[in-house]
Amino acid sequence: MSEAAGRARRFARAWDDLRGRSGRRVMDLVRGQVAVARAGAVLACSTASGEIDRSAARTRMAEVEHEGDAARAELVRALLRTLATPIDREDLFRLSRSVDDVLDHLRDYVREADLFGPADLSFATEPLQAVIGGLDELDRALPKVFDDPGSVTVAVLATRKACNRVRQLYQARLTELFAGPLEMDTLRERELLSRLDAVGRRLGESADALADAMLKRSH
């Protein structure tokens, strides 16, 4: 690339930053990551309900994880090229990393369900539905950063509520398990429940990153 062409590209990038286009592009990439994580949660939920064979779900989840890695890599590249970001750059990285962690734990859940999961996975359906709902709320919050920043907090709280629901379901199911006989399936289910609880916690960290970013932006 010639020096003149390089200057032209830098000027175009700076002009896009000034008009806010780059910021919206970055936020769209974050939403892309959230969409991939949601696809992973839907796949895990379909496995729990028996709609998809566990082995097939594990194979498909590997593809979803690859999509998530590509989405995060694209976001990181965009952040390196963007002069001005819609929210604090560090919080954007935190948000992206936490969403990636959500997908990683969903991948582990699907893999462990295939490797050593109990015969009945129906206990996981409701927590995973809560995760899907929380990701939907997070996705709704992101574009509001530009158009309705005051309502972002409401959507973030809804995401947090979904995370709390995952924790409540985890604790309630553990209570039921520990009230019964200690069997191998009990231990298997406990491990998968712990994995789902980790999914909820990582989703909560995503919400916290966005909440922190909005607090900084308001000052």
Number of helical regions: 8
- Helix percent reads over 70%
- Secondary structure category: mainly alpha
End-to-end Cα distance: 41 Å
Oligomer: single chain
User: Within the CATH hierarchy, at the fold level, what is the topology?
Assistant: Methane Monooxygenase Hydroxylase, Chain G, domain 1
- CATH second-level architecture: Up-down Bundle
Name the CATH superfamily assignment: Phosphate transport system protein phou homolog 2, domain 2
Largest sheet: none
Topology of helices and strands:
Elements: H1 3-19, H2 21-48, H3 54-81, H4 89-116, H5 125-141, H6 144-147, H7 152-179, H8 184-218
Helix pairs in contact: 2-3, 2-4, 2-5, 3-4, 4-8, 5-7, 5-8, 7-8
Question: Can you give a write-up of this model?
Answer:
This protein is mainly alpha-helical and 219 residues long. It has one domain (3-218): Phosphate transport system protein phou homolog 2, domain 2 (Methane Monooxygenase Hydroxylase, Chain G, domain 1, Up-down Bundle). It is built from eight helices and no strands. The protein has helices spanning 3-19, 21-48, 54-81, 89-116, 125-141, 144-147, 152-179, 184-218. It is globular and about 60 Å long. It holds the Pfam family PhoU_div. This is DUF47 domain-containing protein.
